[in-house]
Amino acid sequence: MPVQPKMNFENKKLYDRVVKMFDFAKTHRDAMTSNWRNSEDLLYGNHWKHSKMPRYKSKITSNAVFEAIETIVPIITARAPKLEVLPNNEQSMEYSEMLERQFDRYWRMLKMNRKIREAFRNMMSYGNGFMKSTMDPYTGEIAVDVVDVFTAFPDPYASSLRECEKTYFIHAPVMYVSDVKRVFGVDIAPEGNLDEFRSLQWKEQVEAAPGGGGSTIKSPIGDTNNSRVETLEEQGTGGYAYSTEQALIIECWYYDDSVEEIPETITMPDGSVVESESTMSMPKYPEGRVTIIARSEKDKILFDGPNPYGRLPFFMSKNYSESGSFWGRSEASQVESLMKAENMIISQIVDNIRLTANPQRIVSKSSGIRPNELNNEPGNVVSPNAPGLVAWETPPPMPNYVLSALQYLDAKIDNMTGVQDAYRGKSASSTESGRHAQILRMQTVGRLQPKMEEITEMIQDIAEHWAYIITEMMDQPITQRVKDDAGQMGFQTTDPSDMRAQGISSNSFDYEIAVGSTLPHDQQAEFQETMMLAQAGMVPPEMVIDASQFIRDKGRAKDFVRQAMSQEQAGGDGAMANLTPEEQQIMQGTDEDAINEVLMKHPEILEAMNQAQPQ
């Protein structure tokens, strides 16, 4: 939310301006809505929604797109990213580590792993994933939300969020009118059905599912008889009367070239500054403007003011990014026809199996047998009037090419989505080692490289945005836990106002996140590789302790290693101290024969050197 969410302005002209932008953007974006709803049907297994097949026909769903998304999402978002803040000058060096620690703190506090995973899942499900990050005006802390794609309305002619900064971008969430009253201090009228501005219309899904209509699942969409009132009354409402009535809130972030006249100043000889009678024109909204309205109230403005963030506080990742297009493409749209063909073949196979196990019966009318007498009850005896009056019609066996077609479709879907057996933890041979499986996974990562880059760039933009809020907007000192060189815990306090006084801003740093840093890694393979490097003397023993997943008190283990190494070093130095000056000079030289003679005279030196070698 903007810095002052309770400002209230009566400005009909401004309302009309925002609604005009919203209607224009919505008209152009409506073409995407049907595609997104179709993707939802495919993602949640509602593939036979418009089928007119008889009820007795099998309707099997092979949901390959769900498998693809739920395989890729955990892989790419397995770990928290490692942000590196690089200072651009010596003055900002002391603050780079502080920003890194604060980034890690916000990542944990805001549960960003889960939110990034949700945004990434939206990207694959709909083609675009959106997030929003602002500064909470009440707590002064950073807030992050995942934005529903159905509430995003960009300028129709923009191909990216950066281009929207030059025009406009609208976020139109649905809010309870009681929440609007609490946040903005304004009473507004509720609206009617607002389902088109929300994803996952569960009511429709439940009704279409087998047993729909009789389901006990309560739908949050179009349901005004929910338990929100009772739940909030139990938790306490803080003096606000809550209701289930809702309204559409239009939050418009846009470029505005309005100017305002500011008195010019004159510096007097004594150093004082006074205002002159002349004025100069200055941009009123140099970083953009934000206006928030309720669509149901034509004469009320919930908020209007300058954009305090220097950029749009929205972030987007795009699936199958194409130049010139704001919208990406969903995974479902790429494999829809393949999935439906696979569903049809599998359903026909199941029908064939059912008819083979329980074939159709051809009963002559003169047999004297009622149809319900022919069943699968073991030992059942049926007596016809004459032989040959009853026949069982079994279907022909399925040809081999049917299974070949299924295998082809499976392989084609895997190629389209980029999901290979290596991602599923499978390999061509059961005898292949885990290390070989890891190599196969690394080889197939290239297929997902564009998706990784999209999510990495979005996280990098969020980190830079957080740095802007910390350096430019926060007033309260930041206290962090830090460890000194000895490993002792302490606290360090940084005042953002001191950073501003020194001219340090978010532009004083560069922000880097390695592509693929969020991917999972094999801890056992990492430990084995570190052990080999330590035995070769290429890495210190402390790194082996860091790589171990079984050593709990790693600090004590490192202290023990350092103490042992110090003792070994001290033993070697003591042995060297027994040498004469001439022998010490020989040991520092390159004459191998002379060095060997000295070692023969002083075997304690050789023993100390052997003890110092890694085992």
What this model shows, in words?
The protein is α+β, with helices and mostly antiparallel strands. The two termini are 60 Å apart. A hairpin with a 6-residue loop joins strand 2 (128-135) and strand 3 (142-147). Mean pLDDT is 79; it is low at 1-9 and 201-242. Strands 4, 5, 6, 7, 10 and 11 form a 6-stranded antiparallel β-sheet that branches. It is flat, with a radius of gyration of 35 Å. It has 19 helices and 17 strands. Helix 2 (64-76) runs antiparallel to helix 4 (112-126) and helix 16 (554-577) packs antiparallel against helix 19 (603-612).
Low-confidence stretches: 1-9, 201-242
Range of helix content: 40-55%
Rg of Cα set: 35 Å
Q: Tell me the major beta sheet.
A: 6 strands, antiparallel
Q: What is the overall pLDDT average?
A: 79
Question: Secondary structure elements and their pairing?
Answer:
Blueprint: H1 12-43, H2 64-76, E1 83-87, H3 93-109, H4 112-126, E2 128-135, E3 142-147, E4 152-154, H5 161-164, E5 168-171, E6 174-176, H6 177-184, H7 202-208, H8 228-235, E7 246-254, E8 259-267, E9 273-283, E10 289-294, E11 301-306, E12 314-318, H9 331-357, E13 360-363, E14 390-393, H10 400-417, H11 434-444, H12 449-472, E15 478-483, E16 489-494, H13 496-501, E17 509-513, H14 523-535, H15 541-547, H16 554-577, H17 581-587, H18 592-601, H19 603-612
Antiparallel strand pairs: 1-17, 2-3, 2-12, 4-5, 5-7, 6-7, 7-10, 8-9, 10-11, 13-14, 15-16
Helix pairs in contact: 1-9, 2-4, 2-9, 9-10, 14-15, 15-16, 16-19
